[in-house]
Amino acid sequence: MGQLKYSVFLCFRGEDVRVGFLSYLIGTLKRKSIKYYVDYEETRGEVMEIFLRRIAESRIVLVILSPKFMESDWCIDEVLKALETREAGTSIIPVFYKVSVADVKGWNIVKQGDRDKFINVTKRLGLRSKDYPTSEADFVNKIVEELEKALTKLETEEEENKLKMKQAITTKMKQAITTNTTMPFFGTNKRVKQLQEKLMMGIPTHTRLVGVVGMKGSGKTNLAEMFFEEGKCYFLRHLFFRDKIGKNMESGAKRDLLVQQFQKNLLKISNTEEKINSKLLLVLDDFSDKEDIICLFGDRGWITPGSKIVIVASDKSLVEGLVDDTYVVPGLNEKEGLACLSYHAFGDVITRYFLTRYSFLKTREIYKDIKNLTK
Hints:
By secondary structure, the chain is of the alpha/beta class. It has 15 helices and ten strands. It has helices at about 15, 20-30, 50-55, 75-85, 100-105, 115-120, 135-175, 190-200, 220-230, 250-270, 275, 290-295, 335-345, 350-355, 360-375; strands at about 5-10, 35, 60-65, 90-95, 125-130, 210-215, 235-240, 280-285, 310-315, 325-330. Helix 4 (about 75-85) links the parallel strand 3 and strand 4. Helix 3 runs parallel beside helix 4 (about 75-85) and helix 8 (about 190-200) packs across helix 9 (about 220-230). The model is unreliable at about 175-185 (pLDDT under 50).
């Protein structure tokens, strides 16, 4: 069923009920503030598809069965559409206006063999005008009273079903996924692979220096950390070195201290001749002064052939002339952007559950449904 815009769709044969009965009914619906749809200003041919769409957008279809109802193919189509778009229950309410249940069962519908479908309407709990022979107003009041009861029941059931569905989704996701408390880096695998290609990781004898650059918050450090963790197992020597020295120190004193710390860290991983002569995986991060990097590199005699070095910088000019190539961290694509937004809006469990199972477009539709569930 589509999005519900109306509480009641009135299906009737105008020639039988438009004067008198229908006017009383609509007046009472208005007084009770029940939103209804009626075809007062519509003309056949132009709007048949509109009517069928309005049926799907209504919570209840009130079918007013009258003596000349069967003379209208339009009315029959509306009833069949109502049966197609509704499950069993009170969402279709028949009103037997000046006809009996037996009369309706005797009606012959040849069109596409739909008689059996149509007769299903008579099996639903309906209201009969013959029970109110002296007061049509009482009959109308009873119809509206039953509509109110049915609407309350349907709305309650719908809210309960939404809650159950929401709980089921949450339970299923929690069972399927072990929650990761670390903020994910969206598009990780693709970017790590691209960086590996820049460094020619597949050619172990080739020395390679690559700058990883991008605007602040683009995920440069996350990318470098993940690349380092994945690649360090292939190197006897590996070091992730950050510039943690205070920015307010004088340049000369700062560089002396920086070189001292860097050499100290290199010695920690080079305590044997085998390691000293082995290739190195090195990541330099959080550097803001090109002269600091140049000072660390020195004459580069300590860089063993086959080493792979990454320099992370916000400004591309910091690595120009120092590296063989530059990797500019790309922005998130549509799917990655949705994953990032979803992570912050709904949490890691929901994001990972859907995006590992469905396409971007399917995930977007699911989130629309979740939004409707939580209204």
